[in-house]
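cron nightly-structures :: item 1 of 1
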Amino acid sequence: MKLSDLKYITQDNIDEVHINVTSADMFSEVSDFNTHMLRMQRKRVSFLRDYGFMLLLNIILTPAGFLGLNKDNSLIYRFGGERVTPCFLMILAFAAVFGYFIMYRKSYEWTVGALITGVILIPVNYIFVLNTAVNGIILHLMQKIDSSIKDEAGYPHFAQLKTSYIRDEENAEEGGMDDAELAYSFDKFRIKPEDDMGMLAENDIGEIKK
């Protein structure tokens, strides 16, 4: 459901998360819109789930790969002798580059994520082949979901519209909604201090005794 498909709902309504319904057709469109937003929210939850899993995986495996360094599983360590500093700097570089492109720029191209992971981390430790493969797979799933929802109205939060029903008689369309219910104020029910005697009236006491 694109914004151009909507007759009554505008971008301002979506930004304000509110619309005043003045006709039956508008009511129908808002109902369909809110139902669609619920479906889009479910897709967004799937996207965020994959996103969180990818971050958790890298947070766990990256330190593990660094702690498991030895001359047999690291090109940098092998060529750098006993110095571990270059490997540590490479991991920091991966965190910075991956964070910039994937988290900041929101580039979910699986080829970009896999390339960043592979080129920077695999020379540090061969175990990062796993990071490269998993990052590529998860980013592919994320990109598929993002591509299916990014052109939808309400992207990226897909908030449902709250409705009001204040009738505009001058600009109302035919077949409009019924007049809105009157707004009640607490003042209607509040006992004014000058009317509250602090005791029951005599006729009220008589009714209670009966």
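cron nightly-structures :: done
The two ends are 67 Å apart (CA to CA).
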